[in-house]
Amino acid sequence: MSGGTFDNGFEAVMPQDFPAFQAEGNAASEISELSKKGYALLKDDRTDEAVDAFKQILAIEDNNNYALVGLGDSERKQGRFHEAIEYYSRCLDCHPGNNYALFGLADCYKATNQYHKAIEIWEQYLTHDDRNITVLTRVADAYRKIHDFKRSKEFYLQVLGMEENNAYALIGLGHLHYDFKEYRDALFYWTRMLESNPQNVDIRVLTSIGNCHRKLKTFEQGLGYFERALEMDPGNFYALFGMADCYRGMNKQLRSIEYWNKILEIDPGNKVILTRAGDAYRNTGDYETAEKYYNRAMDIDFDIYAALGLALICKSKGNYAEAVERLRNLIRSDEKNHRLYIDLADCYVRMHDTQKAVETLQSFQKHGIRNHAVNELLEKLQGSRPQS
Questions:
Q1: Helix axes 167-179, 149-162, angle to 10 degrees
Q2: What distance in Å separates the CA atoms of residue 37 and residue 67, rounded to the nearest whole number?
Q3: Which of 8, 220, 303, 321 has its CA 20 to 30 A from that of 351?
């Protein structure tokens, strides 16, 4: 018999002896097996089969939390975030506080750039588990995305307080400070990340450190990090760009050309790089080659910097009237670009027409923009004019 025996000799009837309980027990066992099967299939990227297993669970028990989370995970894994949100939300309606549903829902909001909603869900999760490093770094990341510097830093530092050299927090703090143009602080955290794991260097850390040096204009120091990155990946765009830009900053135009052209070998239709290469050739005095690069960029699509480069070549060749015409056309399409006014004024100065140079700079000031370079040149020109 399936029952036990009391001391008085009467046989005890156990719950599983009732047919209803047996059915319930069988259902629970079947749900458990289907759940294990579904998650195993999901792990093996057999998503359609996993979905089938989870839906079989719902046929047995409507609103089963394992099935709803599993279906949410299936949709999220396929990038169908809105469908995933529906499953996670349905789970939370029936099972408030389910950590897996909260986690999945927040990740979906993050993936669809709904960072405020993601933060709200993750902070709800943290009321159940306030020392979950993965969630803390996600919250910090989300605050960084909405440019809340203070809250983002608080969460990253909370992670570092629990795990001194947590890679996600160090990298996140680097990005946070970089986004807010605090390049020295960004350099501190990214360098700390590099020093904490020197044997397993992430190429993105190397290029990020190099970029800090570019922004700080410590170009020679930046070169070393970009070189290390290129040893790991000779075709890495960011490392090649960093090398070229550092050499540009060091006024080693021929070396910068070498790296601009390496990028163009990989991506010949890159308009920005064609213009940068054109600038480098122009600065070496090779106007013919510079024109070819600028025109290649312009053939792809109008580029104001390529057009400016062509105007500056005219000015360098002494073709001031053509340069003036080009620059005036550019100003019509970009009225608040101070550099165009300065170059146009300089053309007038070279044509010995100081009055027009002054008027050019004054027309820029009428836009209500304060620019030190414009003001300085204007004061210089007004001081050089003969008094009437």
A1: 160
A2: 11
A3: 303
